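[job 0417] fold request received: D-lysine 5,6-aminomutase subunit alpha
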Amino acid sequence: MSSKLYLDPQLIDQARQYASAIADDVARFIADKTTVATERTVLRLLGLDGVDAEYVPLPNVVVDHVHDRGQLQHGIARFVINGMIQTGWSIQQLGEAVASGAIDLLALPMAPESELIDLGKQAADAALAKIRANRERRDQLLQKLGEGPQPYIYVIVATGNIYEDVIQARAAARQGADIIAVIRSTGQSLLDYVPFGATTEGFGGTYATQENFKIMRAALDEVGEEIGRYIRLCNYCSGLCMPEIAAMGALERLDVMLNDALYGILFRDINMQRTLIDQNFSRMINAYAGVIINTGEDNYLTTADAVEAAHTVLASQLINEQLAYRSGLRANQLGLGHAFEMNPMIEDGFLLEWAQALMAREIFPEAPLKYMPPTKHMTGNIFRGHVQDALFNLIGIATGQGIQLLGMMTEAIHTPLIHDRQLAIESAKYIFNNARHLQDELEFKRDGLMVKRAAQVLEEAVTLLREITQKGLFNAISEGMFADVKRAITGGKGLKGVLVRSQQYFNPLETALRTELGLPPIESLLASTPNEKRGE
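[job 0417] inference complete; emitting structure tokens
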């Protein structure tokens, strides 16, 4: 595809080379580490669910049972697979026995390694078969029902009550939405456990639980059959339980998941080691499940100036792309985030926004880019807000975005109500229909404002990526290179949940996923990590 913005392909290649080196450095750093959340995810994928008498999730109970006595570095699978061999119980029976105090996993004799490996492989294959069946079911429904054209119309529901969310989601689908995102309850990203069951109370959103996923998936399948269009479901697998929620989403056939470690580091102060380790495993699950991930670069522009910091968004997108590839994700699963966030009082701001959106499309031609609406400069003037959203929608269709998160005229006032969402959908559909092929009709001046702006942002992104390559991503974050937010490598929430793997570490789910996704074995990454950097 030729560049309408005349972007320098050599500069783009150079940017990707820097981003690739940065991602390789991260991959080597995390290769010999695991976390409590990753180990809990293994249990969930193997079939453990439910809570104990005090309503503590069983995956937490079993992982803590081993972790509290300093043995989790060997991998939780080693102990539960051995327990299943020694007792003949299912993993659910074993987990309930641990919770009741009826069994001590560390007191059991250890089966031969070959038996652990064989049963672990069988259990992992059974888990992946469930995810594969969901992926195939999605493909069947897409073939049967079809779906709306891109940009997908993406809207949120956020009542706090999953049953109220269902009512709003069905209404939005009938009005024309293609993706329903269930906003997560405020603060859930900082919980080091996943709540259990259907929930009816949440602040600013609804808790992400497996039962809530199941309820909403069934509701969207029902309305999809009614209207003859597949409706995609989105939720959040960021935060301290990132891989666990990714696993729950894969088991309940979610289609889109917000999945970005950098967002959690910068805006939730989650320890960078913890969340980058968790992100890798969560993205492997998303990759195998055929999920489109959404990243959070758009948030940088809520704390930094949207004109001055535009290059940080592009640099982060390129880093996220390379990290995603190392987890098995494909280009058509990368909903890389960017946003329409400039001050509307800036002269020609619309042209600058257009240039940046088109630049992202040209640099990531296969990615279903997620374009975010104006939020930072929205006011109580709902009429001006509706116009700002209309301009945002015009750029979305004119630059071929993949996912358009609709803005609401009441964005700055309260959580959007049903009629706000309906007006937003009507406006987007009107603009998308009337400007469907606008991008095919346009050419841009070589010496014009938009071409110069895109070139400037690309050049600044290359300079930033070169600097990050020299410093390393962890140091770059520590120095506040993204979103003007500084985080320390040993700071933030969740660091105590990071462990260096032992030589006997056992994770059959990781092994199976790496094989299925065509990723190199973890041993090859460990071999490329200098000994003095191991366990840093």
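[job 0417] notes: The chain has 21 helices and eleven strands. The two ends are 43 Å apart (CA to CA).
[job 0417] exit 0
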